[in-house]
């Protein structure tokens, strides 16, 4: 099937964009999960969360979006149909809909804490800030590493990407560049871009608007999947990732949250009293920086 990745049409599943490796059955095998994380740079944990809990949160978020007049009138709320030229709704943050108790039940689910406590071998903490998104038609996320946004605390910080509903690849799913976390061919990129911070260094966050360019230039393998409510994607700060493009007329709902060992320092921008990204200065364009770094 043809889908869109960034602004290119690609076949999924195919050689350019393959199917993620599912680690959902390895929940009780932490050493295999650590090995896979080291090798692939991600863990796709199908069915980690309770499906009904996620679907309930989806309904809460869509009802909120309807109240904000963000959905097409007279369409089923649960479909999340966006109006032509429709507006998106700001839902990220430290308060508001992302902190509704039924949404928090997903984002700070006891299964996530239990997972990370075993994965880290100690108590886990999660950032108060929640990146809840309603991604509209033709929108996608460019290729980047999360360290540039939240790398000023623990080196063991992990992202959990949580789809709020059943999301096919054509509606915008997260895609991982397997191997970008350790392959030699990415070393220079990790040593330059991968040491930046958007606020401290005043640089653009996305490494590329064209995800396919990454595998063409550096190797690795782009992978994604159709997602079901209850699935999650877990990855570290140096795995290149992006999203496929939403080609539907329905919002793609998802939230990305962060977990780390509780004993390690937390990036203060994202804790309860943190100030988030600094505003003001225009960031240096990534193309200019890439030319300097030679990547
Ligand atoms: O949901 C998206 O489009 C982007 C998510 C992302 O980049 C992340 O989880 O780090």
Strand percentage lies at 15-25%
Could you spell the SSE succession in H and E letters?
A: EEEHEHHHEEHEEHHEEEEH
Head-to-tail CA distance between termini: 32 Å
Q: What proportion of the residues is helical, as a percent range?
A: 10-25%
In the predicted model, the low-confidence regions spanning at least 5 consecutive residues are none
| Radius of gyration, CA atoms, in whole angstroms | 18 Å
Q: What small molecules are bound in this structure? A: 2-oxoglutaric acid
Average pLDDT figure: 97
Structural class determined from secondary elements: alpha+beta
What's the CATH class label? Mainly Beta
- The CATH architecture is Sandwich
Quick synopsis:
This protein has 295 residues and is of the alpha+beta class. 24% of the residues lie in helices and 19% in strands. Strands 4, 5, 6, 7, 10 and 12 form a 6-stranded antiparallel β-sheet that branches.
Describe the structure.
The protein has 295 residues and is an alpha+beta fold. It has a single domain, classed as Jelly Rolls, CATH 2.60.120. It has eight helices and twelve strands. It has helices spanning 30-40, 51-67, 101-107, 110-120, 147-150, 187-191, 211-218, 286-293; strands spanning 2-5, 8-11, 17-19, 42-45, 124-126, 131-135, 158-163, 174-178, 221-224, 232-236, 241-243, 252-261. The strands form three sheets. Strands 4, 5, 6, 7, 10 and 12 form a six-stranded antiparallel sheet that branches. A hairpin with a 2-residue loop joins β1 (2-5) and β2 (8-11). α2 (51-67) packs across α3 (101-107). The longest helix is centred in the first third of the chain and has 17 residues, at 51-67. The radius of gyration is 18 Å and the shape is globular. The protein starts with a strand and ends with a helix. The mean pLDDT is 97. Bound molecules: 2-oxoglutaric acid. 2-oxoglutaric acid (AKG) binds next to β6, β7, β11 and β12.
């Amino acid at each position: 099937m043809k889908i869109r990745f960034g602004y290119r049409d690609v076949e999924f599943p195919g050689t350019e964009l393959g199917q993620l490796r599912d680690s959902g059955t390895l929940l009780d095998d932490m050493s295999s999960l650590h090995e896979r994380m080291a090798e692939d740079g991600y863990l796709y944990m199908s069915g980690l969360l309770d499906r009904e809990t996620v679907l309930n949160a989806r309904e809460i978020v869509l009802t909120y979006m309807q109240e904000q007049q963000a959905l097409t009138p007279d369409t089923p709320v649960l479909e999340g149909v966006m109006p032509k030229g429709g507006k998106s709704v700001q839902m990220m943050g430290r308060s508001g809909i992302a902190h509704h108790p039924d949404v928090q039940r997903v984002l700070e689910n006891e299964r996530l804490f239990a997972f990370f406590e075993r994965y880290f071998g100690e108590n886990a903490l999660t950032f108060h800030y929640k990146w809840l998104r309603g991604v509209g038609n033709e929108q996608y996320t460019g290729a980047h590493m999360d360290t540039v946004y939240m790398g000023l605390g623990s080196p063991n910080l992990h992202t959990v990407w949580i789809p709020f509903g059943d999301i096919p690849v054509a509606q915008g799913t997260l895609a991982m560049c397997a191997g970008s976390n350790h392959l030699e061919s990415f070393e220079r990129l990790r040593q330059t871009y991968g040491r930046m911070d958007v606020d401290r260094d005043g640089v653009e966050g996305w490494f590329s608007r064209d995800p396919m360019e990454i595998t063409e230039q550096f190797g690795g393998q782009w992978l994604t999947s159709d997602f079901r409510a209850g699935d999650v994607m877990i990855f570290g700060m140096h795995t290149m990732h992006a999203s496929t493009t939403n080609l539907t007329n329905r919002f793609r709902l998802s939230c990305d949250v962060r977990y780390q060992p509780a004993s390690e320092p937390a990036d203060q921008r994202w804790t309860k009293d943190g100030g988030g990204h600094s505003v003001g200065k225009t960031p240096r364009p990534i193309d200019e920086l890439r030319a300097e770094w030679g990547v």
